């Protein structure tokens, strides 16, 4: 099993690291006590899981000291293990806790004869507790890192491949308004309209006679090629922002002919390189109304 252990100081970005691995197909568990690690791995392996990411931090208490021994035993059993230790400067941690208004995990541990620790005291207590783990894995200082940079570094260290982006191509009718879920909107109303050809009027952009009509018009091909070129040029930038979905909406007057045809053509092209979904809003409404 591929096992990634994420540990370090609270507030240093462990949740970000865990989330990016979950997006990349890892089974993820937060705040797992070390003593349960072997049992969980055995159970998940028996269930067919091959990739596991576990966050272990100060909330596990004294059990973090047993992590080194556990890692050695897991390695001897053939598991591929990578360990990330995330850290940050104290001033950065104080600022993050101030912005999120969350409690530090150790601030809830009140001595029987004392007062709860301040935030600074809790951070220093955690540093001392977690110091036994600082040198057993790859250490990343997240103090000045943008979250997207941290996501990329986590993928680099773990060797995880990015999850494929889902491209949703959606046709719609401008007369009903632009869909709220659209990330990119293109207007096909500038193209010749098959609606004005009587035999094509009842058909849709999915029907071959309409497709043949539109394929014969050079401006239709140019619009599709321009949208395709835009997506090829800018899709890598959306991927850098760790987008999981990108909705490309193409509209015409009624959402029946031109936009439907353009969506079908673009979907056919991009299915070769990405995960693609197709939605035709107006056609779906027509079917629902006729049912």
Notable features of this structure?
291 residues; alpha/beta; Rossmann fold; 5-stranded parallel β-sheet; 4-stranded parallel β-sheet; 10 helices; 9 strands; 41% helix; elongated; RapZ_C
Backbone structural class? alpha/beta
Number of domains: 2
By DSSP (H or I, 4+ residues per run), the number of helices equals: 10
Roughly how many Å apart are the termini?
A: 50 Å
The radius of gyration over CA amounts to: 27 Å
What percentage of the residues does DSSP assign to strands (E)? 15-25%
Report the strand count: 9
Order of helices and strands: EHEHEHEHHEHEEHHEHEH
- Write down the overall mean pLDDT: 87
CATH superfamily of the largest domain: P-loop containing nucleotide triphosphate hydrolases
Which CATH top level class of the largest domain fits?
Answer: Alpha Beta
Strand order of the largest sheet: 2-3-1-4-5
As a percent range, the share of helical residues equals 40-55%
Short overview:
With about 290 residues, this protein is an alpha/beta fold.
Describe the protein:
There is one protein chain. With 291 residues, the chain is of the alpha/beta class. It has 2 domains: 2-158, Rossmann fold; 166-289, no CATH class. The protein is 41% helix and 19% strand. It has helices at 14-23, 37-46, 67-76, 90-100, 119-130, 147-158, 208-215, 218-240, 258-270, 281-290; strands at residues 2-8, 27-30, 51-55, 80-87, 138-141, 166-173, 184-187, 245-252, 275-280. The strands form 2 sheets. A 5-stranded parallel β-sheet has the order 2-3-1-4-5, sandwiched between helices. It has a 4-stranded parallel β-sheet with strand order 7-8-6-9. Strand 2 (27-30), helix 2 (37-46) and strand 3 form a beta-alpha-beta unit. Helix 8 crosses helix 9. The radius of gyration is 27 Å and the shape is elongated. It starts with a strand and ends with a helix. The model has no long low-confidence stretch (mean pLDDT 87).
């Amino acid at each position: 099993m591929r096992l990634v252990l994420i540990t370090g100081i609270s507030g240093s970005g462990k949740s970000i690291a865990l989330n990016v691995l979950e997006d990349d197909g890892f089974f993820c568990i937060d705040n797992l006590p070390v003593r349960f690690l072997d049992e969980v791995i055995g159970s998940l392996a028996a269930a067919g899981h091959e990739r596991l990411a576990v966050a272990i931090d100060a909330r596990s208490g004294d059990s973090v000291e047993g992590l080194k021994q556990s890692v050695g035993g897991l390695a001897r059993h053939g598991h591929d293990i990578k360990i990330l230790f995330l850290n940050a400067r104290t001033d950065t941690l104080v600022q993050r806790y101030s912005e999120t208004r969350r409690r530090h995990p150790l601030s809830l541990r009140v001595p029987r004869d004392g007062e709860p620790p301040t935030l600074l005291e809790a951070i220093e207590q955690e540093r001392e507790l977690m110091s036994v783990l600082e040198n057993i894995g790859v250490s990343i200082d997240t103090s000045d890192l943008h979250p997207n940079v941290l996501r990329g570094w986590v993928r680099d260290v773990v060797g995880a491949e990015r999850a494929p982006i889902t491209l949703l191509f959606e046709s719609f009718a401008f007369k009903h308004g632009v869909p709220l879920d659209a990330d990119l909107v293109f207007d096909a109303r500038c193209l010749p309209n098959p609606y004005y050809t009587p035999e094509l009027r009842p058909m849709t952009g999915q029907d071959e006679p309409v497709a043949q009509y539109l394929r014969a018009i050079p401006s239709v091909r140019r619009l599709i090629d321009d949208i395709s070129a835009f997506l090829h040029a800018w899709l890598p930038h959306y991927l850098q922002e760790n987008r999981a979905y990108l909705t490309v909406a193409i509209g015409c007057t009624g959402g029946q002919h031109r936009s439907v045809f353009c969506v079908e053509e673009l979907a056919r092209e991009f299915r070769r390189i990405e995960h693609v979904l197709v939605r035709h809003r107006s056609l779906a409404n027509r079917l629902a109304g006729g049912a």
